[in-house]
Structures are given as C-alpha cells and as structure tokens.
Design a protein that fits this description.
The complex is a heterodimer.
Chain A (H helix, E strand, L loop, with lengths): L5 H25 L16 H8 L1 H34 L5 H9 L6 H15 L4 H26 L3 H9 L4 H30 L2 H4 L9 H11 L4 H23 L2 H6 L4
Helix pairs in contact in A: 1-11, 2-11, 3-6, 3-8, 3-10, 5-6, 6-8, 7-8
Chain B lengths: L4 H28 L6 H11 L3 H34 L5 H9 L6 H12 L4 H8 L13 H26 L2 H9 L4 H12 L1 H17 L2 H7 L6 H11 L3 H32 L1
Classes of the chains: A mainly alpha, B mainly alpha.
C-alpha cells in the first residue's frame, strides 16, 4: 500500500535541503582560486587547503582537540562503565535518582557549565586550562557513556552472569567473559559519540581557552569573526572528509543507525 | 548481580565524584553565589533584567527563535521520519544515515555554510539582485531569519532521529488497519500515527527547544551583535565585560527555561503513559 503523501514528500525534500545544501556550499567554495568566500567559486585550486594545513594555529589546535577528545573519552568510559554496572546490576537504593544524576549534564546548558568551570577551577582553584577542560569534557560525556552502554547492558540477561558465578567464576572473570562481550558494541558506540562530541564542543571550551591550549572549533570560530577568506571553508572540508571516513569505519564495525539509536533510549 | 553493596558503591563513586565535583557543585555555586559578587547582587540583577526592556527583548527573542525552530523542525522532521521508518525502499537506510551524519559534524562547519549562502555576496542575495527583485543584494546575514535557518539545520537531524525511533515503535499494521477501515492518509496520520508517537514527538520538541535556546555558535556567527540571544549575551558578560552578577543572572534565566521545558515534557509523556 502506498503510504506517502505528496505533502510529506515535499517536506522531506525541504528538510534534506536545509540540512545538506549549506554543507555542500562550504565544500564548493573551499576549492576557489579567489581571495574571498564566494559562490560560484572563481577557478579551481587547492591553495586554501595548503593554506589551512600551513596555518599553525589551526594545526596546533587540531592536535590539542584530538588529545582532549581522546583523553576525555577514555576517562568518561573508565568512570562511566563501572557506574553503569553499579546502577544496573547492583542492588542500590535510589537507583533512579542516581541514574537521573548521571544524565543531568544533558540538561544543564553547556555554556553555563563552561562558565561554572571557569569560575571554580580556573579563577578560584587556579587549575590550568587543560585540566579544567578535561574535567568539563569528561563530565558532559558521562551521560553518553552511561546511556549508550546502559542500553546494551539492558539487552544482556543477568541470569547468565549468575550462572557463571554459580559455576565458580570470579566476579572479574564473569565480567570479562560474560558481561563485556555483550557490552562491547555499546562501548564502541559510546566511545565514538563521546569522541565526536568532545572534538566538536564549543560552549564548554569557549571560556576555558588559553594561549597554550586552544581547541580547533573555538580557534576556527575566532578566525571567522576576523577574516573572510576561504581558509575556514578548506579546514571545514578537511574535517568533513575526516568525519566521513570515521562514519564509514563506524558503519563497517557496527552499523551507523545502531550507534545513534543509543542516544534516544 | 553485584551482591555486595560496598562493591557497587565503589564502582559508582568515581563517576559520581566527577559529576558532583566537576559539574553540579560548580554550576550550583555559580548560579547561587558566584565569585566576587553576592547572591543578593545576582538576584538583584535578575530582577532588573526581567524589567529592563532591552534585556526582556533578548529573552523574548531567544524564546521566539526557540519556538520557531522547534515548530519548523517538527513540521519538516516528523514527515521525514515517517517516510524513512515506513519505506521499504533500499534507499531508506542510506537516507537515514544522511540525516544522522550532520550530527557528527562540528556546529562551526555546519553553520559556516550559511555565510556562503546568506552573506553579502552570497547565493540568495545575488539571485534576488540578478532576478531584478531588488536593486541591491539584501542583507540576509545578522537577521533573525538567518539564526532560525542556522538552528533549523543544526537541530533537524536530532528531530528526525528522535521521531524516527518513535514511529518505528508504532506497529505499521495499525496504519494499514486504519486505511482498511476507510480512513484517508491524512486521517490515519492525524488520529493513529501522531497520537501513538506523541512521547517521541514531545522528546524531539524538548531537545530542539532546549538546544536552540542555549546554542552559542549559530547566533554568534549568523546573528552577530544585532541579534543577541541569551547565550551570546552570557558570553559577553563573562568573557568580555567580566560582569559576574549579570552573567550568573543570565545563566539562571537560561537554566530555568531549559528545566521548565524538560519538566513540561516529562508531565506530557507521563500523562500519556497513564491514559494508555
């Protein structure tokens, strides 16, 4: 039976245009030969890609962003996975309150979190900005770790773990041989989402930048405000290419939709 | 099962400490007694903001933009999600991936495209000038329209994914049953599919609204200083003028808005769950 309605089709096409077309314009203008951001691009060249790769602030910030995203992802998983196990397998009182607490950073506006971290850790405790950023990024990634790995743990049958224990396996062995294999897809999804979220974050990083350690999105944002050259279009296109590669890898490992299914659970 | 309560607590503790010490406590301190100013000053400033026409205009603009973006995202996102969830075409999978993909991409990259589209020598302006609709390419950047467009692009994927999981949970057989009983496509949609996917729609609306009223990158790039929103205002107070009382007051307003919308959504979905 035909389910679609011409109006629904039109709205869907409109939706896709709004989502995708501006991104295509970024890619197209990155290949211009001209000095300014314009469409259609004047001529065709890779000069702005060369300029982006040669522009030291971008490359330094890229390395910083990658470091920060990697370390905060590992940290968020390292404290998040044990917490998921405790919430879902431990007989704790007030379980739903604890779970709500772990999801609470999703509700606080990130700019508010950034401001709070700046005031408490940088102004008050005089922590350096890398450590402050690390605390902030790890904390906002925790909800992903808890929700996404929690969703895959919910699929696991706890009686299997009890059976393993009954057959004499130690708690650690039970975790390693029974629980972990079920959790693995959830952990990979959580890691991927966390990495991307941290790498792209602006609001937390905005107030916490310093001359020694700046993240890439904030550096690009500052650059756009002062210049109108296509260098940011080229940098954006490089990031886009990197993200496409990551998405394909994710599709090969797990299936793309499955990773994102976890967000909404 | 983890039998020992002590082990469970030990597993929970590092995450809990990070959460409370790293986010919740600092946020609460900032909202209630930020450094260098007293709680009284924050609430004094809050009171003045809620009565000053300039500050009120910013609050109202933020609300208006948030509601508009939420409306557009639902109108465009729900039908898209429905078509994707019900389609048996082999293109449905790749199209869903194409809708999800932008979520992996930096807001800066996504928003930047609008500078090309809406900027002074942008495509739309030149087209209007070229068609003779105006003598000069109109200024589209730094308008509320630009901010609404940018935020719609940003949050539409989230609306689609959230509505998609809601529609996917509604048995497609129910659509067919309604159609078989003589309901038209519109009627089936209106009295079967939409009511049954209401919790997902409410969740999508919440996520889009909360995201829109707290987004920074898009209003900063596309709205500039002419279309100040709560987030850009908050950054100006804290990052530029170092007015901590005003920054905290703005943060209180923003946080309250977001908590209100989440509470409203919780009430709606709970009520729905009870009536079913």
């Amino acid at each position: 039976m035909k389910r679609s309605h011409p109006l629904a089709n039109t709205l869907a096409v409109l939706g896709y245009s709004v989502m995708i077309v501006p991104i295509l314009f970024v890619v197209a203008t990155a290949f211009t030969e001209g000095e300014t951001l314009a469409f259609p691009p004047e001529g065709f060249s890779f000069r702005w890609f060369e300029a982006a790769v040669d522009y030291e602030p971008f490359m330094e910030a890229l390395v910083s962003s990658l470091q920060l995203a990697l370390v905060s992802t590992v940290l968020a998983l390292a404290v998040g996975i044990p917490a998921v196990l405790a919430i879902m397998r431990g007989r704790l009182p007030g379980r739903s309150v604890v779970e709500g607490l772990f999801l609470s950073p999703l509700i606080l506006p990130e700019l508010v979190v950034g401001l709070a971290l700046f005031q408490q850790f940088m102004l008050h405790l005089e922590l350096d900005n890398f450590r402050t950023l690390l605390i902030g990024h790890t904390a906002i990634l925790l909800p992903y770790a808890v929700r996404v790995t929690g969703a895959s743990l919910a699929l696991a049958d706890p009686t299997l773990e009890d059976a393993a224990r009954g057959l004499g396996a130690s708690p650690w062995r039970t975790f390693r041989t029974v629980t972990l294999p079920v959790l693995r897809p959830g952990i990979i999804s959580a890691a991927l989402l966390s990495f991307v979220t941290s790498f792209n974050n602006v609001p937390i990083s905005l107030l916490l930048q310093s001359r020694d350690f700046r993240t890439l999105p904030v550096t690009m944002l500052d650059y756009v405000q002062q210049n109108y050259t296509p260098i940011v279009a080229a940098m954006s296109t490089l990031l886009l290419a990197g993200t496409v590669a990551l998405a394909f890898a994710a599709e090969r490992i797990l299936g793309f939709a499955r990773i994102f299914g976890g967000i909404n659970r | 099962m983890i039998r020992s309560r002590r082990i469970a607590l030990a597993l929970l503790l590092p995450g809990l400490a990070l959460l409370v010490g790293g986010v919740l406590a600092p946020a609460l301190t900032m909202l209630l007694s930020p450094p260098r100013v007293s709680t009284g000053e924050v609430f004094d400033r809050l009171g003045r903001m809620l009565s000053d026409p300039h500050d009120l205009a910013i609050i109202l603009r933020t609300l208006r933009v948030g509601l508009t973006v939420t409306g557009i995202c639902l109108v465009l996102g729900f039908p898209t999600a429905y078509l994707l969830a019900r389609s048996r075409s082999r293109w449905a999978g790749p199209l869903l991936a194409l809708a999800i993909f932008p979520l992996l991409l930096s807001n800066v990259v996504r928003t930047y495209g609008w500078l090309v589209v809406l900027g002074s020598n942008g495509v739309i302006g030149q087209a209007i000038e070229g068609l003779g609709l105006a003598d000069e390419a109109p200024q589209l950047l730094y308008t509320e329209l630009a901010v609404v467009l940018g935020l719609t692009q940003l949050f539409l994927p989230l609306a689609i994914v959230t509505c998609y999981s809601a529609v996917a949970q509604v048995d497609a057989g129910l659509d067919d049953a309604a159609r078989g009983l003589g309901a038209g496509r519109v009627r089936t949609m209106w009295s079967v599919v939409i009511p049954l996917s209401m919790p997902g729609i409410a969740m999508a609306a919440t996520l889009v609204f909360a995201g829109s009223v707290t987004a920074y990158t898009t209003p900063y790039l596309l709205g500039g200083s002419r279309q100040t929103m709560l987030a850009t205002q908050l950054f100006r107070y804290s990052g530029v003028s170092l007015d901590w009382a005003a920054a905290s007051a703005t943060a209180v307003i923003m946080t309250t808005l977001v908590i209100l919308i989440y509470s409203a959504a919780t009430v709606v979905t709970r009520a729905k769950a009870v009536t079913r």
